[in-house]
């Protein structure tokens, strides 16, 4: 299966022929003219800021300020390219490492920290940026996304009926021009929820784009174990057109996602995008990837770094001068420092702080038992002092 690429790993623009052909096979019309210089600079800035934030959050976890952290390191190209293709009205369901997408949606990334500090279940208002809260239960968000997209279809139908009844054009067809995107990983494709979501999306032709980041590893399980065929080729079995894109190429990720979202908004149904990328860091801060993968593999992917790739292109084409590049680096340093300050000022994780009270609407025996076990655990430190 062809992998769509517009920038090669050295940051040189590729011939568009193969990309266009691969996209056409999935019924997508790529529009590379939509990529302008400002957009590329914006993508570069978003990638650098996200990485600075992500590295800082990793350090904060190591220093005991966060309970856990899931890095987006290496996946910024896939995420930031794709998220720039969303319209404001579109709705995005992330998994748990879509920090790059959060940045593009306009979330203050620091709002992500309480979830990983263990003080809040969500952390932000999903409606504020049409960016849903993170889902740590693998694959579950794909069903939420398809349900939301099916809801949009029904809203559009009702609005059209009302418009016909009124005859005065007072009802717009805005609900009919929105799309949904959902993120998940290669490991999640083995989950029942994801397969059910693809079935429902196909049978209802829901306006949803499945954005699969194949980062090669589901904790310690390689994606080659999850599937002997390219994951995108599974789309055909569901009747969902699918494409494979180089996820470390933000420009390719952008144009492919844009075409898929437009197709969904036109009412032509779902698309599956497999963005081929690499998780350059550990699965989370609880993981040690040296136990299951080779340094040579990590090195090979470091050479395909999405930030270095876009930077090389911007410099070669004289689209970014030294002032711009050092300005972005300085902004990233400042943001990392502000992230650090913000995190350290957050309330400490506290068993009495409400985290166990807001799991369900009503008290629940299992949650109470978990709370008591955690309280005992915390007190064991007091006793040993
Ligand atoms: C339903 C469910 N099963 C198992 C887990 C444990 N788990 C957490 S992350 C993970 C691997 C996910 O891999 P992938 O979908 O490739 O996403 P990635 O973390 O690589 O982005 C697993 C099995 C979980 N969180 N939820």
Automatic annotation (TrEMBL):
Family: Belongs to the BCKDHA family.
Any GO BP: branched-chain amino acid catabolic process
Listed cofactors: thiamine diphosphate
Keywords of this entry: Oxidoreductase, Pyruvate, Thiamine pyrophosphate
Name of the protein: 2-oxoisovalerate dehydrogenase subunit alpha
Function: The branched-chain alpha-keto dehydrogenase complex catalyzes the overall conversion of alpha-keto acids to acyl-CoA and CO(2). It contains multiple copies of three enzymatic components: branched-chain alpha-keto acid decarboxylase (E1), lipoamide acyltransferase (E2) and lipoamide dehydrogenase (E3).
EC number(s) on file: 1.2.4.4
